[in-house]
Amino acid sequence: MSFAENILDKLFSNGNAPNEPFVSEILERSKNDKASYQKWMQENKHKELSQIYSLSHFLKKRLITCSANVHIFNSRSANAFSISCCKYIDAKSFQHYFDFLKNRVLEKGYELQHSDREIIDRIHYIETIDRHYLKFPEIMLPTDKINQLYGNIQIEHITIDDRPSYIKLMASYQLDSKFSEPISFDKLTRHLFDF
Record's superkingdom (predicted)? Predict the structure, then answer.
């Protein structure tokens, strides 16, 4: 880079390295968002999306993809799925579904550790990542092991240039012998999609 280019870069750059978040903040929903979510739930919109994604999940396990695509990841220390936002699902419904998944996990006895948002300039597009981090409560079982339920859970909602792209939910497990074996991720998935 020439001296002049270096000066121009310093003058006009936003001060952040590429792919570094230029916004990191706590994720909080406005009163309007909360009211919109309650209305969405009362209208059973969550059931419509759950039916779409449970069918997509079923088909994906049989190696069939559809427009509401689901990706499945399995390993020894973590399991995950991601669900894509297709053109017939509006952005607000997809955001509500992200919060709905968090609330379904809370129903299983989890505690919300925190929720945050990062906005990242990826040079050719702006990526926004909303996250919910949920932890299992450290409850001892009669076997003197800590019940880790389904493991620690992280849910992400990714948008590209303000267009919803996908939601990812990952359960990561403690492999230490002081923790119980995690409950099957398939059971969690069935609860989340209610099928």
Answer: Bacteria
CA separation for the pair 57, 68 (Å, rounded): 9
CA 57 to chain centre: 16
- Digit-coded pLDDT (tens) for 61-85: 888 877 778 889 999 899 999 999 9
DSSP string over 80-127: EEEEE--TTS-HHHHHHHHHHHHHHHHTTT-EEEEEEEEEEE-SSSEE
State how far the Cα of 148 lies from the Cα of 105, in Å rounded to an integer: 13
Question: For the segment 124-163, what is each residue's pLDDT rounded down to a tens digit?
Answer: 889 999 999 999 998 888 888 999 999 999 999 999 999 9
Local structure of residue 179 (DSSP, 8 states): B
